[in-house]
Amino acid sequence: MSIEIKVPPVGESITEVVLSSWIKNDGDAVEMDEVIAELESDKATFELTAEQAGTLRTVAQEGDTLAIGAVVCKIEDGGAAPAAPAEKEEKAVVAEEKAVSPVAEKTGDSYATGTPSPSAGKILAEKGVAPADVKGSGVDGRITKEDALNAEKAQPKAAAKPAPASAPAAAPVVAGSRNERRQKMTPLRKTVAKRLVAVKSETAMLTTFNEVDMKPIMDLRGKYKDKFKEKYGVGLGFMSFFTKAVCEALKDFPSVNARIDGEEIVYNDFVDVSIAVSAPKGLVVPIIRNAESKSLAEIEKSVVELATKARDNKLSLEEMTGGTFTITNGGVFGSMMSTPIINSPQSAILGMHNIIERPIAIKGEVVVRPMMYLALSYDHRIIDGRESVGFLVRVKQLLEDPARLLLGV
């Protein structure tokens, strides 16, 4: 007897997904609840698991667009036999031991031992780490994403080994050639494209600029960053200061934290800050919930956690849904000035930029200071010029006097 594995519902607004990769191949033996494929929607990547033990028979191909409920594959009886009750109990004991002690050496290998999943293989190839040098913790010793990421951190670049010889080398580009490459847009990229065009045509978007002297914050970070990391286990970055400044400024200018819903304006008494992050498959905006009630350390921990999940394509729909205000930092890529596009249905977005030492006048004297341009794009239908400029000036004041930021005055 065989069963059909179908695309599961992954969100109210998601009607189709793309089969990004097969973790198991046609004809492979699979176990109950084993990950067999990765599905990609316009918002996140999901894992498809086996609903029974048996032999995998693929139906869809990598790159296929599948509707919710469409058949992805079948699992036939045979192959991986379901575990007997005694065996299940033994596996549960082993799993519990793994959770509290180092993984023991395996006594035997299978075809999967030392074989990386597609995503793990990509990470290892990029870092020049051979799969043979990585111990897999997945089913039958398969190398998972986590294994690849840990191997990347554990091995310095000087000791990194070249990529496997079996990996085909990219064809050299001949000077003067006029080759073209076509690549299908991912669901995420298509959604981002549609939303950006919609925002430009459906909102009265305007951008106002200001600049901030970053020396006070840089001095504060330089003085306390070691103690901060020692106490809280995370670095003291700029994002936490900007998030706190935004939360304080929104108390004085609530319309910047509001949105239009039909013929009503919805004001929020909380601040869910969306942080724009460049992920391998495109731009994503995970959310720091109730940022107004978090400390600098809590914000930094949230930023690190969300950025790591974004890099590993492990963000859930809940972590990317909602948000009342967005912060984007183009400065990490060297941008000195830009006009960010509003993250609909929000009404405003703050753009951070590169820190450049420039001469400025302070009390009649020319001094060199680390300066950053700030850009606030906003929907003029709900936010007036006075409010947008006042909000940005308030953010500037708080950043240039961190004591006021920390004291909330």
Helices and strands in order, then pairings?
Elements: E1 2-6, E2 16-22, E3 29-30, E4 35-40, E5 45-49, E6 54-58, E7 65-67, E8 71-76, H1 85-100, H2 118-127, H3 145-154, H4 187-202, E9 205-213, H5 215-232, H6 238-252, E10 259-261, E11 264-266, E12 273-275, E13 277-279, E14 282-284, E15 287-288, H7 296-311, H8 317-320, E16 325-329, E17 348-352, E18 355-362, E19 365-379, H9 385-400, H10 402-407
Parallel strand pairs: 12-16, 16-17
Antiparallel strand pairs: 1-8, 2-4, 2-7, 3-6, 4-5, 6-8, 9-19, 10-11, 12-15, 13-14, 17-19, 18-19
Helix pairs in contact: 2-3, 6-7, 6-9
Please name the defining characteristics of this protein.
OB fold (Dihydrolipoamide Acetyltransferase, E2P); 3 domains; globular; four-stranded antiparallel sheet; alpha+beta; seven-stranded mixed sheet; 409 residues; 10 helices; Chloramphenicol Acetyltransferase; 31% helix; single chain
Would you write up a description of this structure?
With 409 residues, the protein is an alpha+beta fold. The protein folds into 3 domains: 99 residues, RNA polymerase II/Efflux pump adaptor protein, barrel-sandwich hybrid domain (OB fold (Dihydrolipoamide Acetyltransferase, E2P)); 55 residues, no CATH class; 217 residues, Chloramphenicol Acetyltransferase (2-Layer Sandwich), CATH 3.30.559.10. Strands 9, 12, 15, 16, 17, 18 and 19 form a 7-stranded mixed β-sheet that branches. A 4-stranded antiparallel β-sheet has the order 1-8-6-3, with no helix packed on it. Strands 5-4-2-7 form a 4-stranded antiparallel β-sheet, with no helix packed on it. About 10% of the residues have low confidence. A hairpin with a 2-residue loop joins strand 13 and strand 14.
